[in-house]
């Protein structure tokens, strides 16, 4: 009998106090502030959840539980927003970098690195926020598809190395937007678990800015969303999950057909505890 070896991937987040010297310094700053004034709350944390290749109406059809959850929790739907470019890259460069399409002061050609671009997470990091950038489709990642990407790690928590390893383990084509399960989890479930453990690690003690982008679930499969109803699963339905103060959901680009993008957000400052 010939045994086949497998590689397990776990959605693990290291505590910020042990992640790096820079994150340890950030935690010390917030702990000092808290010790000096125990009544003072940290500034609001930001969680951005983006999903690729979906329009507003497609979201209504494919994610009914998510839509119901958002409506029942006072999310505000921002109508009238439209994309400014053909794919995700120019739209994120506008939303997160404040730059117009093809007028990037920090990036001009494929060989240029993205490190010098004025991304929003840099502003938060300068104010001692913990920062995170997560994508589930490394083959067509926003800042790496037909680009050099980042030479230095852009945020405190950066999921790309783990997702690239899983991508290679799967033997997927370089520019594939899909992956099957690895370690018993789909890429979507893996990233959801990562976000949840990140929320547990930070709690309400340390403010953070987290940008996540889910691509594999719907990029190459028009009906892929229906299977998981993904963002209903991330509604903090585990015990002692600390909810962010500001949550922004972005649905965009609807397979190059619909030019609208749906943006909804909530301002929230409570700890949510639900029994399993």
What does this structure look like?
The protein is of the alpha/beta class. 31% of the residues lie in helices and 15% in strands. It has nine helices and nine strands. The strands form two sheets. It has a seven-stranded mixed beta sheet, with helices on both faces. Strands 6-9 form a two-stranded antiparallel sheet. The longest helix is centred in the first third of the chain and has 16 residues, at 21-36. The protein is globular. The termini are far apart.
Q: Number of helical segments?
A: 9
- Stretches where pLDDT is under 50 for at least 5 consecutive residues are 236-241, 254-276
Distance between the termini: 42 Å
What radius of gyration results from the CA coordinates?
19 Å
Shape: globular
Instruction: Give the beta-strand count.
Output: 9
Sheet with the most strands: spatial strand order = 2-8-7-1-5-3-4
Please specify the SSE layout and strand pairing:
Blueprint: H1 16-19, H2 21-36, E1 46-52, H3 56-62, H4 64-72, E2 76-78, H5 88-97, H6 120-126, E3 130-135, E4 157-158, H7 160-170, H8 187-202, E5 208-214, H9 224-228, E6 241-242, E7 246-252, E8 262-267, E9 271-272
